[in-house]
Design goal:
The complex is a heterodimer of chains A (about 325) and B (about 325).
Chain A (H helix, E strand, L loop, with lengths): L1 H29 L14 H8 L7 E3 L5 H6 L4 H8 L33 H14 L6 E6 L6 H12 L4 E7 L2 E2 L2 E2 H4 L16 E5 L3 H16 L5 E6 L17 H8 L5 H11 L5 H24 L16
Parallel strand pairs in A: 1-2, 2-3, 3-7, 6-7
Antiparallel strand pairs in A: 4-5
Helix pairs in contact in A: 1-2, 1-10, 1-11, 2-8, 4-11, 5-6
Chain B lengths: L2 E6 L8 H4 L7 H17 L4 E4 L6 H7 L10 E4 L9 H12 L4 E6 L1 H10 L5 E5 L12 H12 L9 E3 L2 E6 L2 E6 L2 E5 L15 E6 L10 H5 L10 E7 L5 E8 L2 E14 L3 E3 L5 E5 L2 E6 L5 E6 L4 E3 L1 H10 L9
Parallel strand pairs in B: 1-2, 1-4, 2-3, 4-5
Antiparallel strand pairs in B: 6-18, 7-8, 7-17, 9-10, 9-15, 10-11, 11-13, 12-13, 14-17, 15-16
Helix pairs in contact in B: 2-3, 2-6, 4-5, 6-8
Classes of the chains: A alpha/beta (about 325), B alpha+beta (about 325).
Chain lengths: ~325, ~325
């Protein structure tokens, strides 16, 4: 029981850190504080948190263009992330990558990725390396419903299933591929149905229930570590914002938007209610978690703002040329 | 107007038990195929109207859209006038509407969980459950064509035998004397504190089991009862079991598909109709028909009661046998 309490409190803290970071990033971007794009992870915090709660530092993740949440959940440092968003030399990629290319190989973060569906082959390759080196490490590929239409999805699942690779494919199905609704881009509603075609387990779960996600991820990761091969987990969720900051999301039905943002569905509010019901925390405890997260994010912003820009002389450093 | 309802759950057969056990993934296109054959069966025996539950996969409209062109269907297909929320309560709402519309039979596609929702509101309308779920003690694996024909025969009032339509038992979950939920097959008290992913796959987390029935070949927690003393659908008793060390018996039971586990039995007893079993003190979770549903607080007082007011269930083979005896299959008699 004590272990469950600790686990739930830890997951709550991670979700709060993600939400606080994302809200700050949205405001800063709107104020023109940094360039590039922001694809907000608001609303989907439970998925990265529930999955990464079951990983070791030596495990790998491959993220997406909507990657801040995955990186934070895997242990990414907020100050280095924020500096990268600002394009500063102290950022994770020395300011050359921005929001969509943050990586930290030491933490097993093999990168956010600006190309839809591009993380899956990388995760499959990382899983091959884990198996080839005879480690018990695993790789996680995060992607969306839109990416599950790409060849990279089908090729990755095919290869991973043939070679029984230790990889878990986590589909964050938020119902939208940019502004294209799922019913417009695929003739199925449950992406998990596609697992059958590759002879691997596929499950659909509530993507706003961190406990359900953690349970499913725990079992899939256990399976991967044992050498039983890949799993497809579909998490049904909703992004609170548009595809990117600046997209008003006018294509969404306002009723759906209102419902998904309600306390009954919001992933963070649901954990808060659970913590209070179980008497694992009181309101003051939760407020402290939020205040601590805000302090950490404020420090990250200060670090980013005070950091130097990259030196123009380094424009070709770390850049592949042919 | 001879009317039949169809409630097909698009979410059945997809939960975590594909991962922690060895359950099949039941894809929605296969449900479309089953429904298509059921509609052809209904049409063949003269059913005039089909009312269906709307669902996010549009199972019935898809079945109609891919109906071969050379079939001349006389059946009118109507969507139930209800709001679809994409949650399990949709099945209960649909069953209520179908009862109010005087449908003569409701075909369900799902597992024990789907049928539990239907049983809450279907009243006396006979249910014909086709298994597309995980733990399938209540529904059976059936071919859609025969199921459609049998449902049509029932809706037309062509059979009335007790073998054809059987009254089922049910469990009432009572909190301080008030009915809060039901189960058709089993209610299981777990050491868990979260509903989480809903499924049960760890025998060590089970504290108590109450069943309406159980056979040795059942899949799910009711198999524990089935491997102690089998109890059939028509037996007028159930069973209460306490799980844990301290007893003389340990049995092997398939608690989920492919998951055959040793289960230590502290004690068990047969349960008469009307009898109640006190739920052990919380915190805990009560799972109903294989899915964690109710979180029990430290001071909550719950009871589980066995009753005989479960749904009327159509036995396809017995129904069609009875109908054949009455000459229904001879051309010109329908």
């Amino acid at each position: 029981m004590a272990e469950k309490k600790e686990q739930l409190l830890e997951m709550y803290k991670t979700m709060v850190r993600i939400r606080t970071f994302e809200k700050e990033a949205i405001d800063l971007f709107a104020a023109g504080k940094f360039p590039g794009f922001v694809h907000s992870y608001l609303g989907e915090e439970a998925i990265a948190t529930g999955v990464c709660a079951n990983l070791k530092d030596s495990d790998y993740i491959c993220s997406t263009h909507r990657g801040h949440g995955h990186l934070i959940a895997k242990g990414g440092k907020l100050d280095l992330m924020m500096a990268e968003l600002y394009g500063k030399s102290t950022g994770y990629c020395k300011g050359k990558g921005g929001s969509m290319h943050i990586a930290d190989v030491d933490l097993g973060i093999l990168g956010a990725n600006g190309i839809v569906g591009a993380g899956m082959p990388i995760a499959t390759g990382a899983a091959f390396a884990c198996k080839y080196r005879k480690t018990d490490n695993v790789a996680i590929a995060f992607f969306g419903d839109g990416a599950s239409d790409r060849a990279t999805f089908h090729e990755s699942l095919n290869l991973a299933s043939i070679w029984k690779l230790p990889v878990v494919f986590v589909c964050e199905n938020n119902g939208w591929a940019i502004s294209n609704s799922q019913e417009n881009h695929q003739n199925i509603t449950d992406v998990s149905d596609r697992a059958t075609a590759y002879g691997i387990p596929g499950v659909s779960i509530d993507g706003n229930d961190v406990m359900a996600i953690s349970e499913a991820a725990e079992e899939a990761i256990k399976r991967a570590r044992k050498g039983d091969g890949p799993t497809l987990i579909e998490c049904k969720t909703w992004r609170h914002r548009g595809h990117f900051e600046g997209d008003p999301g006018a294509y969404k039905d306002p009723k759906d938007q209102e419902e998904w943002l309600s306390d009954a569905k919001d992933a963070l509010v649901r954990v808060e209610k659970k913590l209070i019901e179980l008497k694992y925390a009181n309101k003051a405890d939760l407020d402290k978690v939020k205040a601590d997260a805000q302090t950490e994010v404020d420090a990250a912003v200060k670090f980013a703002e005070q950091s130097p820009d990259p030196d123009p002389s380094e424009v070709l450093t770390d850049v592949y040329t042919v | 107007m001879v009317s039949v309802g169809i409630i097909a759950n698009p979410a059945s057969g997809k939960d975590i038990r594909r991962l922690v056990a060895h359950s099949i993934t039941f894809n929605n296109q296969e449900k479309v195929n089953i429904v298509q054959r059921a509609i052809l069966g209904l049409n063949s025996v003269g059913v005039e109207e089909l009312i269906y539950m709307p669902d996010y996969y549009n199972i019935v409209p898809r079945a109609m859209a891919c109906m071969p062109g050379d079939y001349k269907l006389n059946i009118k297909v109507i969507q139930a006038d209800m709001v679809m929320n994409g949650i399990q309560e949709d099945s209960a709402d649909a069953a209520r509407l179908m009862r109010e519309c005087h449908t003569g039979c409701i075909i369900t596609l799902g597992g024990d969980g789907t049928n539990r929702m239907v049983a809450k509101t279907c009243g006396d309308v006979p249910v014909l459950p086709i298994s597309t779920g995980t733990n399938n003690v209540f529904p059976r694996m059936l071919e859609g064509t025969g199921a459609g024909m049998a449902a049509g025969v029932v809706a037309r009032g062509l059979v009335n035998g007790s073998k054809s339509i059987q009254k089922n038992k049910k469990l009432k979950i009572l909190k301080e004397g008030t009915l809060v939920d039901i189960a058709l097959i089993d209610a299981v008290v777990l050491k868990d504190i979260f509903i989480g992913s809903r499924a049960i796959w760890d025998a060590e987390r089970i504290k108590q089991v109450v069943v309406t029935r159980g056979e040795p070949d059942s899949i799910g927690i009711s198999a524990i009862a089935g491997n102690l003393e089998p109890i059939g659908t028509l037996d007028e008793y159930g069973m209460a079991i306490e799980i844990g060390q301290g007893g003389d018996i340990t049995i092997m039971a398939p608690i989920a598909p492919g998951l055959i586990r040793p289960v230590p039995i502290r004690n068990y007893r047969l349960l008469n109709l009307g009898e109640e079993v006190k739920v052990s003190n919380g915190p805990g979770v009560i799972a109903l028909d294989g899915e964690r549903e109710i979180e029990v607080g430290e001071n909550d007082e719950y009871f589980i009661q066995l009753t005989l007011d479960g749904p009327n269930v159509v036995n396809v083979r017995e129904t069609l046998r009875e109908a054949v005896q009455k000459g229904y299959s001879r051309m010109g008699n329908l």
